[in-house]
Amino acid sequence: MPAADRPRIIAHVDMDAFYVEAELLNKPELRGRKIIVAGEGRSVVLSASYEARADGVRSAMPLSRALQLSPHATVLPPQMHRYRELSVGIMAYFDTITDTKEQLSVDEAFLDLTGARRRLGQPQQIGERIRADIRAQFGLPATVGIADRKFIAKIASTRAKPDGLLLVPPAQRLRFLHSLKVEALWGVGDKTAQALHAQGIHTVEQLAQTPRESLKRRFGVTGEHLHDLAWGNDPREVVPQREEKSIGAEETFARDIDSDAELTRELLRLGHRVAARLRQAQLNARGVSLKLRYQDFSTLTRSATLEHPTQSAQVLTQTAVRLLQGLGERPQPVRLIGLRAERLQRDDGALQLSFDTRAAEWLDAERAIDAVAQRFPDLPVAPASLLPREARRQVGGGSKLEDD
Prior knowledge:
Layout: E1 10-15, H1 18-24, E2 35-38, E3 45-48, H2 50-53, H3 63-69, E4 74-76, H4 80-97, E5 101-105, E6 108-112, H5 117-120, H6 123-138, E7 142-147, H7 150-160, E8 165-167, H8 173-178, H9 190-198, H10 204-209, H11 212-219, H12 221-230, E9 246-257, H13 260-281, E10 283-294, E11 299-310, H14 313-326, E12 334-346, H15 357-375, H16 389-395, H17 400-403
Helix pairs in contact: 11-12, 13-14
């Protein structure tokens, strides 16, 4: 059969409770217990063991709420450098299986296995090999879903968790899909599900049997897309080197903050974190967004378009501060603040021509900070206002960055 006519074989590989399992490598005595990975104070849950999930604990849940649901859980602080290290190794391993890999996050990826079949065997064999290799090389469990459509492979891995494998052959595609609730489909969140339920649509089979024009009238383009998915129609391919659409950072405070000065200082910190990641990835941002979460957990975002693309912390921070000031008097203290660089594009090396002289000098200074930080990783290098008090005395007090 010509390669173009061969059915695609797509695997979705997802690590199980990745952060928790990474911690258990060094703490095997905790296996089988309720574990939550989260920062100190009023942070959110980054990962939870399946034992804690049985109590209702979920990722992104406030830690205080998680401990109400699972009061006997052990809370472990995250070791992000360790998780990144493991992720790099796992993604490099995937490259030995196929040259068509689409990384979705630190712990999951799509793999196009179509070309690997002759070398590695049948899809089921390849899936078992992937799971066995990850267990042997990294000591971690992984779940694999395999199908000829990306979204079905992802659904399959979700249903096979934890530490499982589910293969959906092309001939069984519709039987598998039509046995699911509509919530299983990509793009069906709580609101969409409620709207579908209001139309008497609770299963994918019912969705498939609903006239396409009826769905289009009720839900627009989304309705047409969901109808396509209900019939297994999804032309999306595995796309290597997936481009980041945005880069952001946020901070949950140990106590609610109502001070403009403290919020501005935190935006400066976040601006430098985001800008450093932009420069490392050789990306520029055309937009900036501000995120605030208030004391009652209500959340708002505001965004702005930049006059010129940038990777400068000074520009990102000034824009975010203007967005903050534009909110006027805040109704409540703030528990979380975030800054995100959006509408990213590749750095073509010519953007400095559009900057004024002062902005160009700022960017040069930030790139110099990058170089110093890379050469001396243990040396605190940052705007003076963000350094510990002792470090500020060592470098001689204030700086231009602090004044601006």
